[in-house]
Specification:
The protein is mainly alpha-helical. The protein has helices spanning about 1-15, 15-55, 115-130, 135-140, 145-150, 155-185, 195-225, 230-255, 265-270, 270-290, 295-335, 340-355, 355-380, 430-435, 440-460; strands spanning about 65, 85-90, 95, 395-400, 400-405. The protein is elongated and about 110 Å long. The mean pLDDT is about 85.
Length: about 475
């Protein structure tokens, strides 16, 4: 078996496609390192300016919470260009996403060139190109019968083919990864520390675990089908299904399976809410004025402020329902895409790199926890909490033949010393926690490996060597 492994590795090392992959790997991982450095510098500049602005101008009307840039986006970007860099926070927990920055409007759907993309697209395809002739090619040239006529068993031949594929794929993968890390360590040494080394190591192991699925898949089809051309056609079809179709179609299916109103429809629904909740309360205040129950501007202002505040709460809850529905739709799309091992690998990579939707959810949770601290600070300094929404209200009232205007209250800025303004601290989970988050995705990849390995051994055991 060792002789077969050596022969296979030597043949692959001398092939033109191996040379092409080495060059392509160096170029892609090199671009990954350079782009990651550029992106991290821009994000750190924006983050530093934002934090500095908060420290210099603390406010009881509105403050800003910024997400610390993660240098491990070079491993798995996790859709950072679509995620907000932070939130603006108002009293009573009003969170508004900050703009995510400039976008490529000419090519908005160009994927990020991170490790996960290079591995799940380029290297998975290369593994299939190595495996598709693994058994069928030997049969076509007549060497399969000769090899199996010796002491070597069929299972041993399959294992030898599998090991040679993984080894020959690992050479350009590790070389490319080292090129990327060298570029980042030279141009941005502070971005990589010893604490990220275990994450990088686990990412490499995860890559081999993912590529193993395609190695078993290629050997299974190659053992099952006698003609290499047909094997290649089948494998390319399955690759397109796993890598392109399922991850993209899942979003379309989630849109069809979940009913979520559009942003325009959500805004239109605010009108009836205001009519039923806000203006109904204001009409009751006006009736009390007519009955003579409210005779002073101070008493009227107190009642209308309460009515407006309750209306703001209703509007905030209305938009919260919409945002939660959008999150459920996104989670449904992710769960549907998990039928593909490519999606499982992507999500596990994001967990190990601490990027993607889970980090955004954790940051939002930290922001909501901080909002109670922020509210207590406002109560201590100003003496009252006034919440707002995307809408403001106004009306006019006549009392004792005197006309005056009433408007929804607005948070008040404290003019005294704010040196004790509470600072926001984002939580950072440890590696075991991130591995735990990736558990289901890792279990899915394990299941794919187990099923395809069993199928490959079954197929070669029944393979006709003639």
């Amino acid at each position: 078996m060792i002789t077969i492994i050596r022969r296979e590795i030597l043949e692959h090392l001398q092939s033109l496609q191996f040379l092409i992959l080495i060059i392509l790997s160096i170029l892609l991982f090199g671009m990954n390192g350079w782009v990651s450095v550029k992106k991290h510098r821009e994000q750190m500049t924006r983050y530093s300016n934002g934090v500095k602005g908060i420290a210099q101008n603390p406010s009881t009307v509105e403050t800003y919470l910024y997400m610390h840039p993660n240098p491990l986006v070079l491993l798995a970007d996790g859709g950072s260009k679509y995620q907000p860099p932070g939130y603006s926070l108002g009293p009573k927990g009003k969170l508004t996403s900050l703009p995510s920055g400039p976008k490529n409007f000419k090519m908005p759907f160009v994927p990020e060139l991170d490790w996960a993309f290079i591995i799940k697209v380029v290297f998975s395809l290369y593994v299939l190109l190595l495996a598709f002739r693994g058994i069928s090619g030997e049969k076509e040239i007549g060497t399969l019968r000769l090899v199996l006529s010796n002491v070597l068993r069929r299972n041993q031949l399959l294992i030898a083919k599998y090991i040679s594929i993984i080894v020959i794929t690992g050479i350009p993968l590790i070389l490319g990864g080292l090129v990327s890390l060298c570029i980042v360590s030279i141009l941005l040494p502070q971005a990589l520390s010893l604490s990220v080394v275990p994450r990088i190591g686990l990412m490499v192991l995860l890559a081999f675990f993912y590529l193993s699925i395609f190695a078993f898949l290629g050997l299974f089809v190659s053992s099952l089908v006698g003609r290499s051309s047909v094997v290649l056609l089948i494998l390319l079809s399955v690759w397109i299904l796993f890598v392109i179709v399922v991850p993209n179609v899942s979003g379309i299916l989630s849109d069809k399976l979940t009913s979520v109103p559009s942003e325009f429809q959500t805004a239109r629904q605010v009108g009836p809410i205001l009519k039923e909740q806000v203006w109904a309360r204001i009409d009751k205040v006006k009736e009390r004025i007519k009955r003579g129950e409210l005779t002073t501007e101070e008493a009227i202002k107190k009642e209308t402020d309460q009515a407006f505040e309750e209306g703001q709460e209703d509007v905030r809850n209305h938009y919260a329902v919409y945002e939660n529905a959008m999150k459920r739709r996104a989670n449904a799309a992710r769960n549907l895409s998990r039928f593909s091992p490519t999606a499982l690998f992507q999500f596990a990579s994001e967990s190990l790199a601490d990027t993607g939707p889970r980090r955004e959810e954790r940051f939002e949770k930290d922001a909501k926890a901080y909002s109670s601290i922020y509210d207590n600070y406002i109560l201590e300094k100003v003496g009252r909490l006034v919440g707002t929404s995307y809408w403001s209200f106004g009306s006019s009232i006549t009392v004792n033949e005197k006309y005056f205007r009433i408007d929804s209250p607005y948070p008040q800025e404290y003019q005294g010393d704010k040196s004790d303004f509470p600072r926001f601290a984002e939580s950072s989970p440890n590696l075991p926690h991130n591995v735990q988050e990736a558990f289901l995705d890792l279990a899915g990849l394990s299941l794919w490996n187990l099923i395809l390995a069993m199928l490959a051994f079954w197929a070669i055991s029944r393979c006709d060597v003639r």
